[in-house]
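so i finally got all the pieces together for this one. its two components total, 297 residues if u count the protein bits. some of the lines might not be protein, just check the labels. i wanna see the whole assembly predicted at once instead of chain by chain like last time, that was a mess tbh
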Amino acid sequence: MIQKPLPRFIHFFGAFGAGGLISLMLLTNGTLAQFGSLLFSSWVPHFTGSILAIVILAVLRPVRASRKRPPLWAYLGGVSGGLTVVATSAAMNSALALSGTIALGLAGQILFSLVADARGLFGLPQRMPAWRDFAGLGLIIAGALVLIFWGGAS
Amino acid sequence: MILFIALAVSAGLLVGLSRQLNGRLALSTSAMESSFWNHIVGLTFVSFIALFIGGLFEGAPLAAPWWAYLGGPIGFLFIAAGSWAINRIGAAQTAMLIIAGQMISGVLIDVAMGVAGNTVARVLGVVLILGGMWVTRTAKVKR
């Protein structure tokens, strides 16, 4: 009975902590963009991240979970990530500004993840979100909107 | 205007797509290898865009403080964590927890750096997000 909720808590904390990493990246990459071009602020983290990735893979040599090769399209996550930078920077320079771009981006991200779970997109397990997931989602979106549009100095 | 709204929404869709693809790659390999490929493929892609558009080294990038160059190692951890989580709690819960973490840490960083802001809104926003996390946390797991 005690062991069951524990792994779930670790997953929750891991994903929550990953969100904290985004804030740090906004700080580092945003600072780069103040000195160099926007493209540079995306190219540098890809470059330094690749170097660390090569070192980590060479040292730790993580074992593959399956002998079957993954489909080739599964390697394209980095392209999608690169396109995100382009789309974000284009929208940010419009009347949407940073806050509108972030809010609409969150909406897109939530929408994709719900459809992805419900349909089991791209070979990940299918799972129907429960009503409590939607309630939690609603509260988190509400809190995010309050912070984005009302949290700054104005 | 509709074009820019569509662009902003698709930026979010692309974030979800990227996490789904990296998650699928991690399913056959490992979260660390998935993050490795995400960075190598992403670096190649952004380099091609830079060759095409040009102006990569415009401005005074060398004047930036040294810690501004540390986004990469943080990003490596971030992609690995996302690929790990999505295969365990699903795309929707991963997305909402990452958003919750981003929002709350953003407030903490702003407060620590003395950025001016509306205190009432900050408290209300954080409470709403923590409440949302609590509601999801106590959700029954369907097996």
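The two ends of chain B are 44 Å apart (CA to CA).
DSSP finds four helices and no strands in chain B.
anyway lmk what u think
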